[in-house]
Amino acid sequence: REYQCPHCPRKSNRSNNMKEHILTHDPNRPKNFSCTICPKRFARKHDLKRHHQSHER
C-alpha cells in the first residue's frame, strides 16, 4: 500500500514514515537543531546534517 501526504506530493510505502513526514508540515513543531553557518533551524537532527552538506558544495 502507498501512503500519500495530504500536504505535498510525497508518497511512502510505510505508514510510520508518512506519519513522521507529515509532522514536517506542522509550523508549531519545535525546531531545536540550529545551523552554525546560517540562521536555519530544523526539527530533526538528520535534516540539519543534510543541510550542512549544502554549505560544503
TrEMBL record:
<keyword id="KW-0863">Zinc-finger</keyword>
<feature type="region of interest" description="Disordered">
    <location>
        <begin position="1"/>
        <end position="27"/>
    </location>
</feature>
<keyword id="KW-0539">Nucleus</keyword>
<dbReference type="InterPro" id="IPR036236">
    <property type="entry name" value="Znf_C2H2_sf"/>
</dbReference>
<dbReference type="GO" id="GO:0008270">
    <property type="term" value="F:zinc ion binding"/>
</dbReference>
<feature type="domain" description="C2H2-type">
    <location>
        <begin position="3"/>
        <end position="30"/>
    </location>
</feature>
<keyword id="KW-0479">Metal-binding</keyword>
<dbReference type="InterPro" id="IPR050688">
    <property type="entry name" value="Zinc_finger/UBP_domain"/>
</dbReference>
<feature type="compositionally biased region" description="Basic and acidic residues">
    <location>
        <begin position="17"/>
        <end position="27"/>
    </location>
</feature>
<dbReference type="Pfam" id="PF00096">
    <property type="entry name" value="zf-C2H2"/>
</dbReference>
<dbReference type="GO" id="GO:0005634">
    <property type="term" value="C:nucleus"/>
</dbReference>
<keyword id="KW-0862">Zinc</keyword>
<dbReference type="InterPro" id="IPR013087">
    <property type="entry name" value="Znf_C2H2_type"/>
</dbReference>
<keyword id="KW-0677">Repeat</keyword>
<feature type="domain" description="C2H2-type">
    <location>
        <begin position="33"/>
        <end position="57"/>
    </location>
</feature>
<dbReference type="GO" id="GO:0045944">
    <property type="term" value="P:positive regulation of transcription by RNA polymerase II"/>
</dbReference>
<protein>
    <recommendedName>
        <fullName>C2H2-type domain-containing protein</fullName>
    </recommendedName>
</protein>
